[in-house]
Amino acid sequence: MTATHVLCDLTQSYAANGGGIRTYLTEKRSFIDRHTPHTHLLIVPGAEDRASRQGRHITVEIASPKISASPNYRFLLRSHAVLRALREYRPTTIECLCAYNLPWTAIWHRRQAPETSLIAGYRTDFPTVYVEEYAKKIFGHWSAPKFRRLAYAYARKLYGKFDGVYALNSGMAETLGKGGSKEIDVLPLGIDPVQFNPNRRDDGWRSSIGAAPGDPVLVYAGRIDEEKEADVVFDAFSKLPDEMNAHLVMLGDGNLLNRLRQAGDGKRIHFPGFIGDRAQLGRILASSDIYVSAMAFETFGISIIEAQAAGLPVVGVNAGAMPDRVSPGLGILGPVGDAEAMAANIAKIWSTGEARQMGAQAYDHANTQYSWQRTFEHLFGHIYPKASGLQFLGDISAQTAGAGTPVGEEAEPNLTRPIFSG
Q: What is the pLDDT of residue 264?
């Protein structure tokens, strides 16, 4: 019989409104409830100090300031408060999902609790996405690669202190592993095939945005900011021929939202805001025709495979994880930052009639390659045991949710309390 553990996830990158890590953690908790007897501890930044418990879910929020460039996110600097939470709940494992101060906090905790196993999820290629890009702006293109190499050296040193490390794609795993002593696993993420499938198509929703039956509807889902290069998607749409009668739906919020909304006034561009209801998101995707993204540094691309599961071809860029997600026949990838090329690729897919066939192939691809069940069986059946020497899964077929309390059926009264003044 599998022993009961407290499994901790620790991250800065947790938004109240969506995001890939939030989706991952929601699905992880669901898997833990259905297939294990374990308790899940989540430590994240929040508006105030508080801890709450529902069934086998414990959430510790630590008061943290908002990040001005990404107001949905907060920066957790109070490592002493994190350490107090870890001492109180004593997790068996800590999975750290960001690369800044919190991994060092986890390392410090392990010095006091050496039985704790540390697993790192390398989810942002920060030496390239942040260090090199900012160095280009400050020091110029010639010196930026030096800063990137220094950042990779730092990352290898940091993650060399963890018991297990995984990346979200093979390219990131290979780059991080070069010259390091740590083997980097690859953890593909998943989709919810119930929420994301072509059967959710709703012609009434299309009519509500003014799209006629033959009009192409393009959709983008993610932060509307510079990092996601949402402005490139906007500019590409603006370059499409008027006779296409295309519509663009940009789902999400961010610091470019107001500027793009003003610039799109009077055009067939729609900004519904952040869609927190996953069923509604699936309905919008299935009711659209082409998914568009200009993000050059995508580490996995949950939004891409969700769009594919909804039956959409993808027009994107040939960078980051996108080539892994969008193979030939599933869409078209173009150069980074080139709105003209993106517009040409959108027009090509639509004018040649390839969109429908590519969408059908994308649906088959997503449903055969990605599932959350497979993700967490690999995480708990391979990555965690290799890092800790412990077993975290029993017989999956036994559906061990009965060993604990599923969400919504509380073993204890739901409690919310203030914590940690430090």
A: 86
**Backbone φ, ψ for residue 254 (5° rounding):** 160, 180
Please compute Rg for the chain using Cα positions: 22
Tokens of 388: 């800790």
The residue with tokens 């209801």 is: 277
- Domain borders along the chain are 6-190+371-411, 198-369
CATH 3.40.50.11540 assigned to 198-369: no
Compute how many other C-beta atoms are within 10 angstroms of the C-beta atom of residue 200: 20
Tokens of 103: 């991994």
Measured CA to CA, the distance from residue 89 to residue 417 in angstroms comes to 15
Contacts of 295 (CB under 8 A, 6+ apart): 222, 227, 228, 229, 301, 316, 317, 320, 322
Fold (topology level) of 6-190+371-411: Rossmann fold (3.40.50)
Outline where 160-264 has alpha helix (H): 170-177, 203-208, 230-238, 257-263
What confidence score (pLDDT) does residue 181 get? 66
How crowded is residue 312: how many other Cβ atoms within 10 Å of its Cβ? 30
Q: Average pLDDT, whole number, for the chain?
A: 89
Secondary structure (3-state) at 64: coil
How does strand 50-54 pair with strand 57-63? Answer: antiparallel
Is residue 71 scored above 90 in pLDDT? Answer: no
Contact (CB, 8 A) for 94 and 120: no
- For residue 420, which of 104, 101, 89 has the smallest C-alpha distance? 89
Amino acid at position 408, single letter: G
> How far is 314 from 221, CA to CA, in rounded Å?
12
194: DSSP letter: T
Higher local confidence (pLDDT), 138 or 240: 240
Structure tokens of 95? 């999975």
Of 89, 95, 24, nearest to 58 by C-alpha is 89
Could you tell me how far CA 229 lies from the centroid of its own chain?
16
On the question of a common fold for 6-190+371-411 and 198-369, the answer reads yes
Q: CA–CA distance from 154 to each of 77, 105, 302, 374 (Å)?
A: 20, 16, 27, 31
What one-character-per-residue DSSP string does 155-200 give? Answer: HHHHHTTSSEEEESSHHHHHHHHTT-SSPEEE------TTTSSGGG
| Cα atoms found within 13 Å of the Cα of residue 88, Cβ hemisphere only | 15
CB 180 within 8 A of CB 267: no
Structure tokens, 216: 């192409």
Contacts of 11 (CB under 8 A, 6+ apart): 21, 43, 44, 96, 97, 98, 102
